[in-house]
Design goal:
Helix content is about 30%, strand content about 25%. It folds into 2 domains: about 160 residues, Rossmann fold (3-Layer(aba) Sandwich); about 160 residues, 3-Layer(aba) Sandwich (Aminopeptidase). It is built from 12 helices and 14 strands. With about 375 residues, it is of the alpha/beta class. The strands form 3 sheets. It has a 7-stranded mixed sheet with strand order 8-9-10-11-12-14-13. Strands 4-5-3-6-7 form a 5-stranded mixed sheet, with helices on one face.
């Protein structure tokens, strides 16, 4: 595919325009042209990227690949939450799954209108909408241009993984080179160098360190947890860090299986918003569960782990992971008053302050999984 861009506008001869031409030896500002060779016809590709500085012709090229109608810029209403505006006729789980897949796992954000979201949340919400609508051909302009670079990288990674599960083709237009290796595109055209290249980039690696700690770090993660519950009694806490930065959190308590047997119970799994979509949450959880399976815990006994969640994205991820098996599904919570009484008795027996609330009394569909490794 050969693309020739010839943009024209009026040539002005005002005093200031003439002075600019004289000072900077600029004969005219009315003409812009660029020629691009993009051998992409009929190729088996899913994601292409046109990258380069602002004003280098990315939008003009993008609008000619699939046609101007393929530029993806859907309207958003301020009258309803984004969860209602993303593919209204699609399955609920598909919408919430797309939001989680692109790293927008902050459930309260799903209940806000698009105008009330932060720039990073808007970026991810638009990507989730694109994934749900899954047009056969789409062009996304200003990809990752208005967000924090950390969010841009992992948002790009999350989008690329989710988009490859669709049947469409997308071209991303970006002025940032730092997202390319996170997207791992099938092809790249650089408008600055006028170079076309087939995809050969590989995603960077990073090390996640797991630290055993106490509940002091929960205050950092609590604002991003989708439930408002008291901390579990007698839990051991773990925090995952990358280069010293707190990234994810998990509490490990115990569950009595009867007849003197018990197993570990994972809870309070939280990944910081700027790291959502990078896949660290499940790997962090699996790493700790493997430690417990090997007996690396305060009891020095091999333990299986049970984990419950009502988060649609996490449910889908655990179902896909062969190391986990679903063991239960409840449409609503148990009796909250009975739970409160049980927590109070436990506190009295252990000479600690009993739970002030109790668990249950809700209508969330809770899914239970057991880690088998």
């Amino acid at each position: 595919m050969r693309i020739e861009v010839r943009n024209r506008c009026d040539d002005f001869n005002t005093y200031r325009a003439a002075r600019v031409k004289s000072l900077f030896n600029a004969e005219s500002g009315c003409n812009f042209s660029i020629d691009a060779e993009l051998p992409i016809e009929g190729g088996d590709w899913k994601i292409g990227v046109v990258v380069g500085p602002s004003g280098s012709g990315k939008t003009s090229i993008g609008s000619r690949i699939f046609g101007a109608d393929a530029l993806y810029d859907p309207p958003w209403s301020s009258e309803g939450p984004i969860v209602d505006q993303i593919a209204p006729d699609a399955d609920f789980d598909a919408v919430t799954g797309a939001l989680a897949a692109v790293g927008l796992g902050n459930v309260p954000a799903w209940l806000r209108p698009f105008s009330a979201l932060s720039n990073g949340e808007r970026f991810r919400a638009a990507l989730a909408r694109l994934i749900c609508e899954a047009p056969a051909e789409a062009v996304v302009d200003e990809f990752s241009s208005v967000v924090d670079r950390q969010i841009a990288k992992f948002g790009a990674l999350a989008f690329a993984k989710a988009w490859r599960r669709t049947s469409g083709r997308v071209v991303l237009l970006s002025c940032h080179y730092d997202v390319l290796e996170w997207i791992e595109p099938d092809w790249i055209f650089d408008t600055q160098r006028l170079e076309f290249a087939r995809g050969s980039l590989r995603r960077p690696r990073f090390e996640l360190e797991i630290w055993k700690t106490d509940s002091r770090y929960w205050r950092l993660f609590k604002p991003h947890y989708y439930l408002d519950l008291p901390l579990p009694v007698g839990a051991v806490y773990y925090v995952g860090t990358v280069d010293g930065e707190p990234v994810c959190h998990l509490a490990m308590a115990t569950r009595n299986k009867g007849r003197g047997k018990f197993e570990a119970r994972g809870t309070r799994l939280v990944v910081m918003p700027e790291w959502q979509g990078a896949g660290v949450g499940i790997r962090f959880l699996n790493g700790i569960c493997e430690m417990y399976q090997r007996g690396e815990n305060k009891w020095s006994k091999p333990l299986t782990t049970i984990f419950h969640t009502s988060h649609p994205g996490l449910v889908a991820a655990l179902r896909r992971d062969p190391r986990w098996r679903q063991v239960s599904a409840a449409l609503y919570g148990a009796n909250k008053a009975r739970s409160h009484a049980s927590l109070t008795r436990s506190g009295s027996l252990n000479r600690t302050r009993g739970g002030s609330g109790g668990f249950g009394g809700h209508f969330r569909a809770i899914q239970g999984f057991r880690f088998h490794g």
